[in-house]
Amino acid sequence: MPGITGQLYQQFAVTISVSVAISSINALTLSPALCSVLLKPDQEPLKWLNWFNVFFGKVTNGYTAAVKVTVRRAFLLTVVYLGMLAATVWMFGNLPSGFLPEEDQGYFFIEVQLPDAASLTRTETILDGVEQQLLEIPGITNIISVSGYSLLNGAFGSNSALVIPILAPWDQREEPELKLRSIIGQAQQLAARTTEANVIPFVPPAIPGLGNSGGFSFVLQDLAGGDIQDFASVMRGFIVAANQNAAIGSA
User: Fold this and answer.
1) CA–CA separation, 18 and 6 (whole Å)
2) pTM of the predicted structure, to 2 decimals
3) Do both 113 and 73 map to the same domain?
C-alpha cells in the first residue's frame, strides 16, 4: 500500500497476514479433523469437557437473565444510551481532530538558526541565553542542546543549534498553564524577543516522519535541456523557498 496509508499500516501488515494464514489453515485442516473426533453420534461426552459445558451453561443463563432485566427496564436503558451519545458528541467536539494530532510526549524541539557563516562561538553564546530563558518557563525542568547541528535541515553547520526542552512529568502539569500548548506559546514569545537568531519551536510528530518537521523530497527535471548553471540556480531557489516555508509553518 503506497503513500501515507501504507506508512500508517505497514507495522500491522505482517501481523494481519500471518494471522489470516494461520486461521485459514486451521479452518481448512485442524478444525474439521477435531470435529470428526469430538462430535461423534451416540457417544458419551468426554469427562474432561464437562467443566466447559457447566461453565458455558452458567454464562448463557447469566446473559439471558441480564437481557431480561434490561428489556424490563427500557427507560433506564434509553437514558444510558442517550448518555453515551452525548459523551460521543462531546468527545468529537473536544478531542483533537487533525490527521495526526499533536501529543504531549514530555519534550519538544527548538531550532536555532543564525546568519550564514556565523561562528560556533557566537552560536553557543546565543544558545546559552536561550537556555536560561527557557528554564524560567514553568513546566520545563531540563535542557538538552546540540550546537552546530540543524534538525530541520539534517546538516551540520556553525550557525545552527538544536535545543530539546524536557518537561516535568505529566502528573505535575495538570494546570492549563503547564500544558504543552501553553509552554509552546511561551517559547514562541521567547523566539519573538530573540533578534540575533531565528528561534523556531515545534512539537515532534506523533509518528516519526509524518509531522510538520518530517521534511519532503522532490525531483527537479529540466525538460528544455537548458544551461546547467541556470538549472542549478533554479534548484537553489527551490531549496531556499522550501526552507523559508518550513520555518514559517513551524513558527
Assistant:
1) 18
2) 0.53
3) no
Q: What is d(CA 21, CA 32) in angstroms, rounded to the nearest whole number?
A: 17
Name the residue with cell 524560567: 136
Identify the burial level of 160 via C-beta atoms within 10 angstroms of its C-beta, where 0-12 means exposed, 13-18 middle and 19 or more buried: buried
Q: Locate the DSSP E strands across the chain.
A: 109-113, 140-150, 155-167, 198-202
Residue 9: inside a domain, yes or no? no
Q: In what order do the strands lie in the sheet with 155-167?
A: 140-150, 155-167, 109-113, 198-202
Query: Cell 523556531 sits at which residue?
Result: 200
Q: How many CB atoms lie within 10 A of CB 199?
A: 25
User: Tens digit of pLDDT for each residue in 99-119?
Assistant: 667 788 899 999 998 988 888
What are the cell numbers at 250?
A: 513551524
Range of the domain at 70: 46-81
